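FORM 7B - TANDEM STRUCTURE REPORT

SECTION 1: FIRST PROTEIN
SEQUENCE AND TOKENS:
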Amino acid sequence: MAKKSESKLTKYEVLRKSSPLAGTLPNTRRFSKRSLYEFLDRYKKVIAKPASGLGGAGVILVTGRSHSKYRVQRGANRRTTHGKKETYRYLRKNIKSSYLVQRGISLARISGSPFDVRVMVQRKLGDAWVVTGMLAKVAGRGYIITNVKRSGGSVLPLATAIRRSTIKGASGAAIMARLRRVALLAAHRLAGYYTKQRVFGLDMGIDSSGKVWIIEANLRPDITLFLKLADKTMYHTIVNYRK
């Protein structure tokens, strides 16, 4: 039997076919001159990222400025490009593998740094999907990616992160309930394609208005993030579900 594709685009396409989830997914396409130009015209922020790969490696953020200028950020490095053509040439020069373009979400921030949410969804054989853990990953100072190792970032209990963040107009309890609901819908949808999968680690974003987004789904999520929290309860729950 053919191996199922684990590319980020495949997972996006599987999720996008679910009408309740479609509005939570930032528009994503294969990287090309045409798709980049279209995204730069439509969105203030555009992410270019590897179609496969882990840990935030190779993620580039392009932000539109005034007068056809763009700010391009890789890691903590920033530069300004002039016009879409120069932006495309710069990206093309720095892209060594298959890439995607994705609408950039203006993630909520804590002390100026963006954060996203890791949501663990698991099931035991024959049982229902359950959310077993949620935490916030805060980008290191000056970075756009929230990968803790790569950006020198940190983790926080989710309720603490929401309380300290720039989110307005939605309570922490309502946002956490929304994250759970969307994560469970996503796990059900993905399990229809990845039929042997018993765990998904969803990277989810929250914007400043409290809207939740699915950034990407991981089939082999790193659970050691949960060991970094002072309270190890979620870590033990996750480990128990793997048995």
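SECTION 2: SECOND PROTEIN
SEQUENCE AND TOKENS:
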Amino acid sequence: MRVATWNVNSIRARAARVTDWLQRADIDVLGMQEIKCRDDQFPHEAFAAAGYEVETHGYNQWNGVAFASRIGFDAVARDFPGMPGFGKPLPDGSLPLEARAMAVTCGGVRLWSLYVPNGRELDNPHYPYKLEWLARLADDTRSTLAADSTTPLALMGDWNIAPLDADVWDPAVFEGATHVSAPERAAFAAFESLGLADVVRPLVPTGYTYWDYKQLRFPRNEGMRIDFVLGSPAFVDLVTGAEIVRAERKGEAPSDHVPVVVEIDTDSPLDDDRPMIF
């Protein structure tokens, strides 16, 4: 089974490109972020024509997550328990929830599509919101693993964190900025302390997943590695390959992110030829 994550940066602008890639790359399940549309505005017809069912979670022209699958869906969930909100308080005093998290089960594998808040600047209200959002996601993940450690689980998406200095083209440029701050990196590491592992880095040690549209960042390869697939031990055991699809940043009207693909073997028993992932 080939699963992927991709911040598509507006699915209505890139539906043809995404569906074409899904077929060329032989993808079974795709988690998308920043679809930037309501559920009724999603280009369902284009995906159906390509042979994919779609589940969406979008409110307006901001944020939004979705899944496309050609092997069906089970147990679809939008948001996670305890997920914090952001913005102007609602009449009951709570904060509105943003469309940033969605889970599905496909082929017996539990997958999350996550669009972690950006953080913006260290003194911006979005920064503590980002840290709280990650902390609550970690709480839910801890509970999920405690209740069921046998179902393969992967948290996929745009984490808006570069965990290592090697994940940005020049650490000096990011000094005092979000994405690389110690609290953000600690929040990312908290998932690893729960037993999750970055399943792509051992197989693809170098490479970025995002390049800003400005200042010729892509031609200069001034990018960031901020899109990840973190898998539970049961998921790690299934991984047979991974790829960062850099070529999808090229061409006409690309997203500023590229797909990250993980290949898993859900059919065969484990054997000694599997790549070791730590």
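SECTION 3: OBSERVATIONS ON SECOND PROTEIN
The domain at 2-264 is CATH 3.60.10.10 (Deoxyribonuclease I; Chain A).
Helices lie at 11-24, 44-49, 126-147, 182-193, 233-236.

SECTION 4: SIGNATURE
Preparer initials: ____
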